[in-house]
DNA sequence: TCAAATGGCGCC
DNA sequence: AAAGGGCGCCATTTGA
């Protein structure tokens, strides 16, 4: 990588992607001003130094906080020191005017994107960049093996001033008198933070976070990507995923019969339930696992669960109807008419996305199962007139990530192939792709038994470095240690009860039961940490990818991110822009590879497809 | 009677 | 092919 100043933008190779504006979103969340370009061999730092587009006279940071009925804002320099007066923004118009007047590329600073950004979006204000104190604090505290508080900025401020930390359970004092004893309302908890200057709180939290991440480029990249992801998440939640309600309704009616009144099974389910009762000869409620299990047990089958893959092998007349009932009942309850009513408005599905909501760094979603849209419902995810989806996923991301973080030469060689599993199969599994895939998944998830457990020795022989990486991660977990993703997200330490159980098993007088229990919980935590390094690093890559895509498509009129699920995304785009957006998506993936795995020969290919229906994307 | 736990299953 | 990682959601069951 060269260090020429003009080469520092970290953009896709060859500069063939039209940008028309400086790339400035992704990194440099902390203190960078134009002209102060820092260079070394770490391309993440090149990228950090390459932040441009900040107006010479504009603020580096603009802190924004709700205040009373309106907002307050204040410019800060790159050290987090206020450089201007507090601006009071009493109403929406003032906020809009203020936002429009800020320099292009200003980095906003606020407490939590999930609470601050939606009202801005509702007022028609979009921002390019932000430093999200709460998400950053979660990452930093995790690294320091501490827990995050609900309002991070206030907590950081309190600690620095030796004040009680708001909402900190440890600091809460038990009430002297039991509530209700005097028939009085329990007094509202005092909230000293209500009197603090919200902009001071933000500035100080920023300074603390800047200090604590000083010099750690990977961590700063993660913080930048996490903050940018939060913007994308809020925008996606507001925009919604195009979903044609009438199409989904028709599918439901075809499969379940007419929509029933509340509390009643749809016709098809009622019919199947009646058939099941008939097959057993007495009433059996297929919605009740207890009922169903005892029914099969009475019929002579020794089963401990009624999971479909267990049921399907039983030789009993009720089996086909039970299986069909389970499938359709799932559709009815999880993605039926109620779901449509509750989560789809104006032919758009609105979930709330929570970046960093999963300990590994993956997103979580609240509402409507936003990250578990079943294949069938994807048939109703249709682009609007004149539009298409650019759908892209990172093929076999996790094994590629394992190759990158471990540096295993053989696995890296395999990752050069478009279909990693086929290459893997040819490399050691006699061409058997299914076996190769099962083995690799088992290695990353910690399988011990069955087919995938049996195949582990093959992997260990072929890819000793990669296997040692995951096995070491598992070992650390079993010992109660923590592990990190490639950019530095840290796994939580095990709970006190975990430690107690493991300790109990190690004592000289431990019984067999205690020993076995200790072994099992230790192994389970080892499986978690084993997977954490892979899943977490994949999430790091994906966050950087998403951030890049968001930054790039901002220049494409009408293009909007409408879905992101761990390693895949959907951009809803005017048909004429599909090709250019597809190219941007690929470019962002290349950029993510370079930033997250600098110098690694690993390949993390994405293959965008242009579709009108999400179900056709795969 | 209500909240928490469980069983099951969709997604990655 | 088999039951290993991460989630959210629903209906039912359990337990205080």
Structure, explained:
This protein is an alpha+beta fold. It has four domains: 1-172 and 196-236, Nucleotidyltransferase, domain 5; 245-341, Taq DNA Polymerase, Chain T, domain 4, CATH 1.20.1060.10; 350-396 and 540-617, Alpha-Beta Plaits (2-Layer Sandwich), CATH 3.30.70; 406-536, DNA polymerase, domain 1. 47% of the residues lie in helices and 10% in strands. The chain is built from 22 helices and 14 strands. The strands form four sheets. It has a five-stranded mixed beta sheet, with helices on both faces. A four-stranded antiparallel beta sheet has the order 12-13-11-14. Strands 6-8-7 form a three-stranded antiparallel beta sheet. Strand 7 (344-345) and strand 8 form a beta hairpin. Helix 14 crosses helix 19 (464-478). The longest helix has 42 residues, at 512-553. The chain is globular and about 80 Å long. Residues 1-58 and 168-188 have low confidence and may be disordered. The structure holds a DNA duplex (12 and 16 nucleotides). This is DNA-directed DNA polymerase. InterPro entries: DNA-dir_DNA_pol_A_palm_dom, DNA/RNA_pol_sf, DNA_polymerase_A. Residues 1-22 are annotated as: Disordered.
In brief:
With 618 residues, this protein is α+β, with helices and mostly antiparallel strands.
